[in-house]
Design brief:
eight-stranded mixed sheet, four-stranded antiparallel sheet, about 425 residues, single chain, 12 helices, disordered N terminus
């Protein structure tokens, strides 16, 4: 009898094994059609995610790089006090020069004097683009330069290094011989093989003629050379710049002064009082930190980075939710198959690996497709990228890592839930 039972079981094993195999195949086949569509959608979402992640990484890298650029001046602790409108009576250069002198004198005469300096335009904000000619070399002009009027203490307050000579002091008046300070870029461009100090330049002279009658004056002597300042944007190289004392500004270049004040609220109050005392018709000045001026110079780049980062985060979230939904649906549909596998002794880690592998397959496919698309996208946004290569492999690698980690986490959660199924209860329900 025992021998017959053994032979009977041996004969039944192939049929039993075949039945189990058919059951497992049928359990998998029942979900194949729907899964293919869902996996295709996951691959597309993953491709979009990696493309947007790479684009966001490039723009964020651009913002970080721009923040680390040395603008050539120190804006920390400074406030800009400017007039929103100019009242009548300021159509003469002497009026502005007198206003600058009176405000400075009033602030220096107070207890705890404030450091104040005036300029026609703030660094990183547009000045005047104006032609100049070198005296004795009328054909040396190769383009316009940046022009700014500055008052006493301007270079000291902004910590702009004086490389040669001495900056103008209060002795340079309207009736004094004109003087000018030039940037290093200006000196290197026009005087590459000789000292710039003592050279003379003609401001506003274009092809032998002056652009305005008030510019027809003796050539200005270069009395100092200062370090370059990024006067338009951290992305742009410093322009060739000239600085003229407020007391010697010609009528054609008259500009409303902006006062730079050390960032003490008491100092701002002092400057406001000095402006009111100098001319009661002056409007209430606007006050803004110089740090805001620096931040605004990269506002567009920061906005682009934030916008693309938000889109990338949304796409990444949709991909993770999609992976989780697909795996959760698959686990629910294949409960019987997984119960049989566990009942037959399959390790729970193997079941988890199988589920995660199925969830990661479309993600990896989308990663490859999106990686190719991101290289194409990087060429399109190359004009928006600065300080980082559009095809920087570190950015692609970081984006791929973020996507893979998010997808693994989204796959692991339902896979871990699948290992907690009770095989007896699952098979009993089925």
């Amino acid at each position: 009898a025992a021998t017959g039972l053994v032979f009977g079981l041996a004969a039944a094993l192939p049929a039993l094994r075949g039945g189990l195999e058919r059951t497992l195949r049928e359990g998998s086949r029942g979900t194949t059609g729907g899964n293919r569509l869902r996996q295709a959608l996951i691959a597309v979402q993953a491709a979009f995610s990696i493309t947007l992640l790479v684009g966001a990484g490039l723009l964020v890298g651009t913002v970080v790089g721009l923040r680390n650029v040395d603008p050539g001046f120190d804006a920390e602790g400074l406030l800009a006090v400017s007039l929103p409108i100019v009242p009548p009576g300021y159509d003469r250069p002497e009026a502005y020069s007198d206003l600058v002198d009176r405000v400075r004198a009033a602030t220096e005469g107070t207890a705890g004097p404030a450091r104040v300096a005036a300029t026609s335009s703030l660094p990183l904000e547009r000045g005047l683009n104006f032609p100049v000619a070198i005296e004795g070399r009328p054909d040396a002009f190769e383009g316009a330069v940046e022009w700014r009027a500055v008052g006493l203490g301007y270079f000291e307050l902004l910590d702009i290094e004086v490389l040669a000579g001495r900056v103008p002091d209060g002795s340079h008046r309207t009736d004094s011989p004109p003087v000018v300070v030039v940037s290093r870029g200006f000196a290197d461009h026009y005087f590459p093989d000789e000292p710039a100090l003592g050279q003379r330049i003609e401001i506003g002279r274009w092809r032998g003629e002056y652009l305005h009658p008030s510019l027809d004056r003796p050539a200005a002597e270069i009395v100092a050379v200062v370090a370059d300042v990024r006067d338009r944007s951290p992305k742009q190289a410093p322009r060739r710049t000239i600085y003229v004392p407020f007391s010697q500004v010609p009528l054609a270049l008259t500009a409303t002064p902006v006062f730079l004040v050390e960032g003490d609220p008491g100092s701002v109050t002092t400057v406001r009082s000095a402006l009111e005392n100098a001319d009661a018709r002056l409007p209430t000045p606007e006050v803004r930190p110089m740090d805001d001026v620096v931040a605004r110079s990269i506002a567009l780049e920061r906005f682009n980075a934030q916008l693309l980062a938000a889109l990338a985060a949304s796409a990444l979230l949709l991909t993770a939710v999609g992976v989780y939904g697909v795996i959760a649906c698959t686990v629910n549909q294949r409960r019987r198959e997984m119960g049989i596998r566990v009942a037959l002794g399959a390790a729970r880690t193997r079941v988890v690996g199988m589920i995660i592998r199925e969830g990661m397959t479309p993600v990896l496919l989308g990663l490859v497709l999106g990686g190719v698309a991101s290289l194409w996208l990087s060429r399109l946004v190359s004009s928006l990228v600065w300080g980082i290569a559009p095809d920087d492999p570190r950015v692609l690698g970081a984006g791929a890592l973020v996507l893979v980690v998010a997808a693994l986490l989204a796959s692991w959660i339902p896979a871990r839930q699948a290992t907690r199924l009770d095989p007896a209860r699952t098979l009993g329900v089925e």
